[in-house]
Every structure is written in structure tokens, then in C-alpha cells.
Amino acid sequence: QMKGEERHALLAVQVLIGISLLLSGWGEQFGIVISFFLLHEVWRGAYKPLKDEYLNRDIPSQERATILSLEAMSSHVGAVFGLLMSGVIAQHGSIGSSWMISGLLLILSATISFRNGKRKH
Predict the structure, then answer these.
(1) CA dist., res. 37 & res. 21, Å (int)
(2) Fewest CB within 10 angstroms: 41, 50, 109, 120, which?
(3) DSSP character at residue 32
(4) What SS3 state is found at 59?
(5) Contact (Cβ atoms closer than 8 angstroms) between residue 106 and residue 94
């Protein structure tokens, strides 16, 4: 049962990152934009410890290094792809539109993941 709660917390933080990023892009006044952007950074800071706890809880010790290495590598590949795509969007649109699209994708992926996890139980 704890594994499900950790997963839900992880997905909730992902949604909060997405909402904060979406609102950062939507804002027009510097104070509002920077406030939501900093809130997005706070939630990003909460994401890694939650993810680490979620991954480490049930991984057998003989497999832990391999799985964590693959996870770290996939996170970096995803970050490179995401940053390149957000740069293209910002170049053809605006930084705000890039942040809003990124936020929407984070919210959408967390929602899909939550729904897929619900069907398995």
C-alpha cells in the first residue's frame, strides 16, 4: 500500500511542477512570473527525494545499481530532448508559450500515469 501512496505523491508533485510552470508562462508581470517559477523550482526540489524513495524501496540490492543507472541516464536523455524542444518552441513562439506547453505536458503525463496505475489495481 505504501508504494501506491509514494507513487501518488510523486505524480502529485509532478502536477504541481506543471501547474507552477504553466502559471509562470501565463503571467505577464515580473513578480508573478518569478514567483511561480520559484515555486516550480521548490516542487522540482521535492521531486527527486520522492522519486529516490519510490525507486529504492523495492529494488533488490543486486539490481539497484543497474536500475538506478538506467533511470539516471533516461532522465538526462529526457532532459536534453525536453530542453531542445522547449528551445525550439521559445524560438518560434515565446519563452512563456514554451513554459506553458511544458507545464501542460507534465500535467498530462502525470494524469495518464495516474490513470494507468489505477487500472492495474
Answers:
(1) 6
(2) 120
(3) H
(4) coil
(5) no
